[in-house]
């Protein structure tokens, strides 16, 4: 009875036989469902289900065999990937543009270019007219991409470059009118066409960032070519415009400088100059670049010397350094009773000033 009661789902101590019948019915349904999915449960073999199982196993085995074969191939492909190297040329040419003294390098396969020749080169802006400023040399590849020289400039190229200058002047007037109409806070400096007139570059100065999207749309509809609006700083503006410095000579930036170094007020202090910002600033409104040129020389001349306003002892009395001229090697010392002007050798005999 215990075995039959257990198989039929009737357990001891259950007062409700209807619930037991319902449980028996549910278990019987589960057994049939299990037998359908598991044919060996009732001892009768199911041919169709047995035929499908080996196929699925074969597919799984094939997938498992393919996966490990794909992974090493994928890793090898990534391991063997290399960045494309730049084109290799026979010679390298040195070219400068317009009035700029900066030299750029271009590749060429012919050794026919001489200093002073006008050439057409390919740049990131497009085709431009440049001038050879140095003899060509043998090309040594360093893995970096280098643009080529397209050809030696012809009479047509030179004529086109001259026409582009005239067109750029008219384009600048049109652009300035559009800026006034849109009320943009920007000062237009110059305009420049590429040699093939596929692009025009407008250079401007602004105190803050300018939203020129509407201006760009209007200019594109007028000129029917690519438009570039480039913002520059006050130093670059002075370099383009040019002028005379406080020394009476042409400004250094427009005469020979290519890049701008950082100039700080500490350089003026090191040179013992009066900290008058107006006198120390150039026409760009920034500190003059010549402060940077002379800074290293003044550092060498002041090496080993005491600082300004420091206390020293001379002939048994205490003095304070109030002024110093490192070029003339003279120093001014004073106290409440006396003021003296001395040479460096008199005040510091132990220091060798012969190489200064």
UniProtKB/TrEMBL annotation:
Q: Where is this region: Disordered?
A: 1-84
This protein's GO CC annotations: cytoplasm
What's the domain of life for this entry?
Bacteria
- A single Pfam family it belongs to is PSP1
What the entry lists under PROSITE patterns is as follows: PSP1_C
Q: Where is the composition biased (Basic and acidic residues)?
A: 42-72
Residue stretches making up the PSP1 C-terminal domain: 147-232
What's the name of the protein? Answer: PSP1 C-terminal domain-containing protein
State the species of origin. [Clostridium] innocuum 2959
């Amino acid at each position: 009875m215990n075995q039959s009661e257990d198989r039929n789902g009737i357990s001891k101590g259950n007062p409700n036989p209807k619930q037991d019948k319902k449980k028996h019915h549910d278990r019987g349904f589960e057994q049939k469902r299990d037998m359908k999915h598991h044919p060996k449960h009732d001892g009768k073999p199911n041919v169709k289900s047995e035929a499908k199982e080996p196929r699925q196993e074969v597919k799984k085995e094939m997938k498992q065999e393919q996966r490990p074969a794909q992974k090493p191939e994928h890793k090898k492909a990534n391991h063997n990937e290399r960045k494309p190297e730049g084109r290799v040329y026979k010679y390298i040419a040195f070219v400068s543009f317009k009035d700029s003294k900066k030299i750029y390098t271009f590749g060429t396969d012919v050794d026919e270019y001489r200093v002073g020749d006008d050439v057409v080169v390919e740049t990131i802006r497009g085709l431009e007219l440049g001038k050879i400023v140095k003899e060509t040399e043998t090309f040594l590849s360093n893995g970096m991409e280098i643009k080529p020289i397209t050809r030696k400039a012809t009479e047509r190229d030179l004529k086109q470059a001259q026409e582009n200058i005239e067109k750029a002047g008219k384009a600048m007037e049109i652009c300035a009118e559009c800026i006034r109409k849109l009320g943009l806070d920007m000062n237009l400096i110059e305009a420049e066409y590429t040699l093939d007139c596929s692009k025009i570059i407008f250079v401007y100065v602004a105190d803050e960032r300018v939203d020129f999207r509407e201006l760009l749309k209007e200019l594109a509809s007028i000129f029917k070519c690519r438009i570039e609006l480039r913002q520059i700083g006050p130093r670059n503006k002075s370099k383009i415009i040019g002028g005379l410095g406080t020394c009476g000579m042409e400004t250094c930036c427009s005469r020979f400088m290519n890049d701008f170094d950082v100039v700080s007020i500490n350089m003026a202090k090191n040179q013992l100059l009066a900290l008058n910002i107006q006198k120390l600033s150039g026409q760009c409104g920034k500190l003059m670049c010549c402060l940077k040129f002379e800074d290293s020389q003044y550092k060498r001349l002041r090496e080993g010397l005491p600082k300004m306003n420091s206390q020293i002892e001379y002939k048994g009395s205490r003095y304070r350094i109030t002024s110093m001229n490192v070029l003339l090697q003279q120093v001014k010392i004073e106290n409440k009773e006396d003021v003296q002007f001395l040479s460096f050798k008199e005040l510091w005999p132990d220091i060798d000033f012969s190489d200064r």
